Structure formats: structure tokens, C-alpha cells
Amino acid sequence: MGDPFSPTLGVVFWQLFVLAGLFFLLWKFLFPVILKMTEEREARIKKDLSDAEEARAESAAALEEQRSLLAGARGEAKAIVTEAREAAERERATAVEKTRAEQEELLERARREIGAERERAVADIRREAVDIALSAAGKVVGTRLDAAADRKIVEDYISSIGGSK
Amino acid sequence: MMQEPQEPLNIGKMIFEHTGDAHDLDFGPLGQVELPRWQPVKIGNLSVDLSPTRHVIFMLLAAAIVMLVMFLTARGLTKARREGRAPRGFANAMEALVLFVRNDIAIENIGKEMGPKYAPLIMTFFFFILTCNLLGLIPFGASPTGNLAVTGALALVAFLVIEIGGLIKLGPKGYFGTVWMHIDGLPPAGAFAISLFMLPIEILSKLVKPFALMLRLFGNITAGHFVILAMFGIVFTFGHFGAGSWALGIGTVFFVIGVMMLELLVAFLQAYVFATLSAVFIGLMQHEH
Question: How distant, in Å, are the alpha carbons of A96, A103, A104, B1 from that of A99?
């Protein structure tokens, strides 16, 4: 007693009692009250964090979905445009082809008609020429050259001229 | 002292009387209160004197102060919560301190799993030791933590918690492994010999840790009081220098104020160290393989 280097057993027991009592009271009654709010706050923060993480994952998934939808729509639009362009191209090609064929046909018909017209004209001229030649020759010889044989001669002649041409 | 200025004061005796335990409360010029003396209690053939001493009174006072502070904190926090506002002032500061001890001392060192279970004990250690340390710095106060019996009892509790906690966590076999060194890559006989040789050392290392806890707290608190009292002793020893004694007195007061500031730091620091080391030792046992 009266010296810090000579501890007494009584104080050891006192300290054990006091510490036990203090610990019990703090542990049972006061610390839970003080820490309750902290523990709740910790739990809430933890929950908030996990909620935020969940929401983030959800929005990321939604974004991904949107993106894939958009990509699909874009591809589809491109396909539609391509198809339309091809159809238009085909349409145009067939129209041109048809027009050309029509023109060709018209041209051909015109040519044929012209040919036929000319044939007829040539035949008419020939006949006319034969008539004129026969009547001229008739005047020259003073007789009427009308027999089939005469006509034959003149026609042969004209043919030979046409042939020699 | 004023009545007999010629009588030299025995500084060493004065220091020991001030830092030692006593059966009275000394209020200096206001007088003394004698504490009751009780009959020793017999436990077997052990005689224990449970009479309250100065340190016992201050230990009870410290416990009461801790209870009061925690009660006010709890009430302030509950009130703030009920009113749906943030806690402020004293309750908020104490909550921050309690949380610091819980999170950064107990859970940080013991681990996330077991930390919250041991935290109340570490918090009790911290606040009780802090209050005891601070009580020695107020006028007419005394630090129960400047008593080897007090720090010894605290260290004993820490020791029991460390070892029993380890025993519960590791099981008898695992706990035995903490004193029985396991060495790989040795022939069985050699490993056994070395383990047997290391056994007393391992057991001793278990005992040294709480012993160091006891001495560190006691030494730091007592040494601080010694320094302050020794500095006051300067006044009495060299106080007869005539004109120079004024300067001496003023200088001493400044030195003592400086040391008091240091003591304030030490009071917090030693409470922190005791709580942290207890938590570290508990954590070491919990994570032993």
C-alpha cells in the first residue's frame, strides 16, 4: 500500500467485478442501441448498393436488347431497300427490252410494207411500160399489137433489161 | 509546507504516495476522506482484502462515467432517430468514436466474421481504460490504470478471451496446434523432438503477450505521473534561490503544462494500444491454422 509497485489482490478482484459489470451492461443495453443505427445503416447501404448493381445490370441488358433490335431493324431496312432497288432495276430492264422489241417489230413491219409497196410499184411500172411500149410499137408498125404473144415478147425484153440492171 | 519551510521534502516518498494506492481519498487542502476497512475475505487459505481503496473508487467512478456517457449517447441517437434528423453534438461525436473503435480497431484486426462478436469487449476496454487514464489528469484524481493490479486484471481478461476464444474457434486439436509446432519435411522422431523442445517457448509466448499488455499500460500511466510530480519536486528542491525562484516556478509550470498535454495524448494512445493489441491477439488466434 502506498507504492505503485506493490499490487494487492483485492484490487484485482475489484477490477474483475467492475469490468464484468461494465462489460455486461454496455454489451446488453447500451452498445446495441448505439450500434443499431449503424448496423441498420450498413445493411441499408449494402442493400442500396446491391439494388443499384441490379438496376445497372437490368439497364445494361435493356440497352443490349435495344441495340440488337436496332441492328435487326437496320438490317431489315437495308434488305428491303436492296430488294426494292433490284425490283425497280428488273422492271426497268424488262420495260426497255419490251420497248426495243416493239420498235424492232414496228420497224420490221414498216420495212416489209415498204418492200411490198415497192414490189407493187415496180410491177405497176412494168405493166405500164409494157402497155406504153406496145402502143408505141403498134403506132410504129400501124397495127394493133395486142396479142398475147406480143405482150410476151415485150415483157421478156423488159425483164431482161431489169435483169441486166 | 508553509509552516516548516526548512524541512526538506522527500520527493521520492511524495511521488510514491501520490501514485500509489491508499485507503483514503486525498483532496489536498480540502482534506481527506478515509475509506472503510473491511475484514479480509477468506477463499480457501487465501486471504483477500476487499476494502475499497482510492483506485477502486476511481475505477468505479470510471465505470460510472463510461456508463453515463454511453447512456447519453444512446439517448441522443435514439432521440435524433425518432425525430428523423441526423445526430449532432456530443452524441454524434461519441458515436463516431464508438464506431472508430468498433470498425477500425476491433473488426479491422479480428476479421469481418468474428470481429463484431468481440467488438463489445474491445470497446469496453478502450473506453474504460481511456476514462481511467484521464481521471489521473484531473485535480485530486488518480489513475486506476497506474496500478499493476488493475492492468493485471485487464490483461488477465484479455488473456482468457484470447485463449478461450481460440479454443472455441479452433477446437481442442487445433488449439493444441498453437503450442505444438508443426514442421513439414522432417522425420517423425525429429519433428516430435523439436515440437517438444518448442512447447515451453510457445506456452511462454502466450503468457508474455498479456504480461506486456499489463506492464505497458501501467508503465506509461505511472511514468507520466512520475514525470509531472518530479517536475513539481523541482519547485520544492530548488525553491530557495531568492529572486531566481520566480523564474524557476514559472518555468516549471510551463514544463508541467507541456507534459500534461503529452499525458493527454498518452491517455488516448495507451487506451488505443491496449484495445488494438487485444484485438490483434484475438485475431491471430482466430486465424491460426
Answer: 5, 6, 8, 139
Domain ranges of chain B: 49-286
Concatenated DSSP letters of B32-89: EEEPP--PPEEETTEEE-----HHHHHHHHHHHHHHHHHHHHHHHHHHHHHTTS---H
Q: Answer whether residue B2 shows pLDDT above 50.
A: no
Residue A145's pLDDT is what? Answer: 67
Q: For the segment B171-205, what is each residue's pLDDT rounded down to a tens digit?
A: 888 888 888 887 777 788 888 888 888 899 999 99
Provide the shortest C-alpha distance from residue A47 to chain B (in Å).
18
| Cβ–Cβ gap B48/A10 under 8 Å | yes
B16 neighbourhood in chain A, CB within 8 Å: 2-4
- Subunit contact B20:A2, Cβ cutoff 8 A: yes
- The number of residues making up chain B comes to 289
Tens-digit pLDDT profile for residues A82-91: 999 999 999 9
Asked if A22's CB is within 8 angstroms of B81's CB, the reply is: no
Listed by number, the residues of chain A in 24-63 with a beta carbon closer than 8 Å to a beta carbon of chain B are: 25-27, 30-31, 33-35, 37-38
A100 sits in which H/E element: helix A31-141
CB contact under 8 A, A19 and B153: yes
d(Cα A127, Cα A132) in Å, to the nearest integer? 9
Mean pLDDT of B250-263: 91
pLDDT value of position B264: 95
Reported ipTM: the value is: 0.86
Q: Is the pLDDT of residue B243 over 80?
A: no
Distance CA A31, CA A77 (A): 67
